[in-house]
Amino acid sequence: MRKSVLAFVVLNLILVNCSFALITEKVGVLILAHGGRHSSWDETVNNATEALKRSYLVEVAFGMANPKSMQAGIDKLESQGATKIVVVPLFISSYSPIIRQNEYLLGLRESLADPPLLMPGMGADNSTAGMAMGASSEMSMQPLRFKAEIILTKPLDAHPLVAEILHERIAELSANPANETILIVAHGPNKEEDNRNWVKTMEKLTDQIREKQQRKGARFKQIFALTVRDDADTAVYEQAKEHLRTLVYQAGKDGDVIVIPLLLAQGGVEARYVKRLTGLAYKWSGKTLLPHPNITRFIQVSVENALQQQAGD
Q1: Does 48 share its domain with 196?
Q2: Does 116 fall in a domain?
Q3: Is the dihedral of CA 46, 51, 54, 56 positive or negative?
Q4: Where in the sequence is the domain holding 238, given as residue range(s)?
Q5: pLDDT in tens for each of the 313 residues of the chain?
Q6: Same domain? 150 vs 197
Q7: Pairing between β-strand 132-133 and β-strand 117-118 as defined by DSSP bridges
Q8: What is the CATH number of the domain that holds 134?
């Protein structure tokens, strides 16, 4: 009898301690996003994170794996008592040196997998796309400082919530699906292997779009996924440009063409796509993934899944 009472008391103490830990534990969310040249780009991303502030401590770190903004975000979250930080990268694809550098900075890789991405204030020339590669800062690129537990989630990739947005963007321009060729166009990486995997991921999005369209009882003529590779070498850039123009030109000979940018937010990059297609006939709204409530949902789902998975381990 005495052993049963003792076991009951111990069990209750454990439950009380666990409950107290759950109550007192503060979860922080660090959103990683590219950042734009115009304040409206950053504002659009910030607006998408507002709803999360009702449940979590939230900070946004703009830049492409920028250690300064990431460290500042982590410091702010820890100063508010965050003991666990879920890091959500709002980037289009996992196949990018940006993602690999994020993993290194967050202590999930032992070393840099690529030449470091140089940031403003780190000796890089930021006059083009805000990113350069080189070895000059490799010695200064060190993992970030943090006391909180860090959990890194996946980028947008082929998430169903992204496919929903793209399908909506297409539907806004579509008039006769059976006569329409759809082109989903993304920025794309420099490395060939990354680009192949990036496009494969985009093709998973196009598969979902086909399925959604078929459920509506109508099919598009064709759907293509491709990258424009803005920051690649001139020869690669020109090849990607001609590939895009050829697809639009050929598809436009016997049907309509709809071009949809796979970008997080509007901020000027999408204008480069329009410039590439000068003189060709196609439909275009220029609408990006944001603003759309699905991006807020994506962040929420990413955080919830990360915390549930950890609790189950």
Answers
A1: no
A2: yes
A3: negative
A4: 160-276
A5: 444 444 444 344 443 444 344 445 799 999 999 887 777 889 999 999 999 999 999 999 999 999 999 999 999 999 999 999 999 999 999 999 999 999 999 999 999 999 998 655 443 333 333 344 443 344 468 999 999 999 999 999 999 999 999 999 999 999 999 999 999 999 999 999 999 999 999 999 999 999 999 999 999 999 999 999 999 999 999 999 999 999 999 999 999 999 999 999 998 788 899 999 999 999 999 999 999 999 999 999 999 999 998 887 6
A6: no
A7: antiparallel
A8: 3.40.50.1400
